[in-house]
Amino acid sequence: xxxxxxxxxxxxxxxxxxxxxxxxxxxxxxxxxxxxxxxxxxxxxxxxxxxxxxxxxxxxxxxxxxxxxxxxxxxxxxxxxxxxxxxxxxxxxxxxxxxxxxxxxxxxxxxxxxxxxxxxxxxxxxxxxxxxxxxxxxxxxxxxxxxxxxxxxxxxxxxxxxxxxxxxxxxxxxxxxxxxxxxxxxxxxxxxxxxxxxxxxxxxxxxxxxxxxxxxxxxxxxx
Length: 223
Fold this sequence. Notes:
- The chain is an alpha+beta fold.
- Helices cover 22% and strands 32% of the residues.
- It has helices at 90-101, 152-158, 168-179, 190-198, 213-222, and strands at residues 3-7, 27-32, 50-64, 70-88, 113-122, 127-135, 145-146, 202-204, 209-211.
- Strands 1-2-4-3-5-6 form a 6-stranded antiparallel β-barrel. Strands 8-9 form a two-stranded antiparallel sheet.
- α3 (168-179) packs across α5 (213-222).
- The two termini are 16 Å apart.
């Protein structure tokens, strides 16, 4: 996860559905943390939609994938810090974020994330209903760990995510390979091949290379 969505100014009695929030789609609020925070890698995905933001917290759990990506679970007792961000043109942004998080509307249990309603506690004392991209605990990749105390900022300082340590050449090849179709062969030089194999980002399929599960996760972080 790293992002939560709801109608700006909603109360605990607001009328929401699982994916769309309330009927007013002109203005919504999001709870953001981690890579969707201002100054972080994915803030650019929401920046042009932001009207204002306020410090806030939610209750749940924060996990880190092997790639370093932070995800949110609504199951837990940790207090997680972030921001409530009010956005414009909400329907457009929600569609993009649903795609990014792999929402599966026909069968939510098959998806890596579900968008569910939660409460956010804003620093000015406001309690706002929001929808959060909650990780499906049954779909988390091997090697995922719980962030102690929900302190994701400390976790990132102690161990920066893998995607932030990649070279430009490595990033460019991951993006090119991730965007390739079918059995398309994406050329690579021997030095880069060895680097990505050592990092367990690519796997040799015989006649072509493919991204490993870790590589696919890194590709999603980079696009």
